[in-house]
Known about the structure:
By secondary structure, chain A is α+β, with helices and mostly antiparallel strands. In chain A, about 35% of the residues lie in helices and about 15% in strands. Chain A folds into 2 domains: about 80 residues, Ubiquitin-like (UB roll); about 80 residues, [2Fe-2S]-binding domain (DNA polymerase, domain 1). In chain B, about 25% of the residues lie in helices and about 25% in strands. The chains are: A alpha+beta, B alpha+beta. At the A-B interface, helix 2, helix 3, helix 4 and helix 5 of A face helix 1 and helix 17 of B.
Amino acid sequence: MTDKKQIKLTVNGVAYQREVETRWTLADFLRIDLGLTGTHLGCEHGVCGACTILLNGHTARSCLLLAVQADGQSVATVEGLADDDADLHPLQQAFIDHHGLQCGFCTPGILMTLVEYMADTPEPDEAAIRDVLSGHLCRCTGYQGIVAAAMAAATELKRIAAHDG
Amino acid sequence: MMDSVPRIEDPALLRGQGRFLDDIQLPDMLHVAFVRSPHAHAVIRGIDKQAALEVPGVHTVLTLADLSEVLTGERLPLGFGKAAGLPADITPFVLCKDEVCFVGEAVAAVLADDRYIAEDGAGLVVVDYDPLPAAVDCRDAMADDAPVARQANTTNLLATFDVGYGDCSDAFHRADHVIAVALKHHRGGAHPIEGRGAVAQPSPIEDRLTLWTSTQMAHEVRALVVKMLGCDEAQLRVVAPDVGGGFGAKFLTYPEEIVVAAAARMLARPVKWVEDRREHFLSAIQNRDQYWNLEIAVDHRARILGVRGEMIHDQGAYTPQGLNLPQNSALSVTGPYVVPSYQLNVSVVETNKVYTIPVRGAGYPEAAFAMERLLDKVARELGLDRAEVRRRNLITADQMPYELHLKARSGSPMLYDSGDFLECQAQALAAADYDSFPTRQDAARADGRYIGIGIANGVKGTGRGPFESAIVRIGRSGQVFVHTAAMPMGQGIATALAQICGESLGIDAAAVRVIAGDTDAISMGLGGFASRQTVTAGSAVHLAAEAVRDQAIDIAAMLLKTTPDTIVLKDGRAWDRDRPEQTLTLGELAEAVAGVPGYSLISHTTTSDAKPGLEATRIFMPESLAYCNGCHVAEVAVDIDTGAVTLLRYVVVNDSGRLINPMIANGQLQGGVVHGIGNALFEKMAFDKNGQPVTTTFAEYLLPTATEVIDCEIINMQSPSTLNPLGVKGIGEAGCVPAAAAIASAVEDALTPFAVRIDEIPITPERLVEHIHTQSSTSR
């Protein structure tokens, strides 16, 4: 029993038109149909946050969305964070500098959440960072390196914004 | 030099370019969904595949009988096959035969064009079950009239064993005080955020199968799958791609991996299985329950004379590995303390729950919890400070090396080679402002807040043998390679090994390519467990890199027509110290000894004794475990209305010997501590009275999140181990060993006015409120 539908969407700025099965999740569509395997599945029930992407700039669990729900929308995934092969996004660099990842499986979802949050909140405090991270499960780090990386990234992003402004 | 260099693993992972198991997509691949038992215990009367087979896209449905043509046996061989005295029929079946023994046990495999269709099919396979009574609580399961966990059993008591030394009866006879505790220690599952999974691909060209699996032990998986398939090692390559955490869950060859490999061979097509989280809750290993009844004999000065008691361990329905988990617990009770006599009787009991093997910490956290609870009670009953009781009993630095009167399961003596446990505790107390805590506590209580401080010490045996291997090789391209059977799964071991190799060869860690988790890369090795890899693989890499360094220097001296003592390796080149303009790259050195057909190895030297290639293979065999130690001090606040426990401070002083990369080492400690916090306060794998798991999502089974934990304040002591050339001790599990004990101590301290006793973890808010109310009403 298959039920297919044509969808059009942009992912990381690239336009796609695809026929998808209506019951497929957005996560499976991104990972399997588009080959964007940076978005990970840790629980498939909306708790762990590993599959977090941006839908029209807002965080969403791609395991709880159907691909057809993204029809006509704009999706951003971890693959689109860095501008090019040479440079990392300041948030990615901060994760290296502050040991914000170990196995790296939960990391893409966390990066997407922090990207959205920092765009809204240029001067976060640690409690606020922890609050926003509470939608993500990490079994490796104990969150300490993630919080440190996020705080450092916020400072760097603010510096860049001031410089650009 | 060794330093906190950035991890070589990070850039790809941060760009979404990691390659995890589920990222592997192959043409023509079939996807597996398992039909799993809904009953804790039942007889299988029949399996009807018909409705599933009619689903478009379902390719086949396989049962144990179907797979028998490609398997050499119906059940897995016992891992750790040397485990003595265990019966033969205790391991899991590849797929259930005629009985299911826990909820989630795999009965059949549906193979379809995608996972969605496979799950449709799995829902339509009709299994005719005849339910049987289940053995659920391991204490109840010991009763004569208890239901048996497996029909082949006459008893659920799988094994009993005694561990101990010295004259306990004399110690308890002489004691001024005998103090007892009854404890329940629960640890749930491992829960790496990436679950288990496997992909098998038969080669269309060679008689060969490649099995990618998310594992902590590629070589062991190969050995077991070779045995189950009846093939040879050349016919099976096992590769672990990027592994998204292990924590013990992936230190086992699972029935599902056998099914994937067997099905791919049978159908001559690639086959993939990736579990969902519910499957991990149901069918990945757990650590689960131990019940401890312990008593301690002390003299009037609170000096320990002896510890004795019994422990009951919930093994689950099968025994895939052996008894290493309860053995570790039993062997590690005495921890960092001088305990002149010790006796523990252990009962290992089968139940209708998924089988247990060690989760991160591997039996040590349970033992530390038991010992530390005893010492807190000694302090309370003798009216002494908790730190003082420990101070009087810790092994002193001048007793090092300290040989315990116990032997590890390898038969080697248990020996603490170095460390200063008293100093470690002293530093932790100082960092946590322990001495001023009573003042702070009084002030808080005057303010209606209940705060407490807890202390716990722990040791962890690390660097477990028997060996690990490494190859260091410089290619003609100039690329330096490390090949190892050590298994990266998030710890940063690739970076640590690259640093160790780079230190010998005078290059940056980033210039070393580490090839791990691939049975084609190196012939043997054991993989990732027991905080062992920096010790064992690190030492093997060090020895191999030193050998290659010597080779490179000899060749450079020949080519530059000087003596080896003037050659230094730096920045990827060999330099003549006396003539800095004379240099050769590592690639040029490798090229020089690569050989040209028919010519002597280094053609312009007639006296050359150079050997082909720049390459060395070394194996490191540790004589015994390298014990790390630590002292944790936790400060908590307890809300007496809600039972909520809030962490206020967490201090760790840890001694894992020489640190290769302090940033990575501290990350391991932080993660370990938070795992321990999860066990102490949140994680509970619950079953109902029929053995039905009732916590099968992350909404029901709580892992710590960023808001429940705080930053650990870490101090590293670095007493070099004398047991390996690097002076290192393991660290991956160190953080979780004393953590739950420290938190229990702190919660109990906070609730002193209510005389609440913590005898069980996790410490749930419901139980705390219940305790507080009970004590309040009795005291009124």
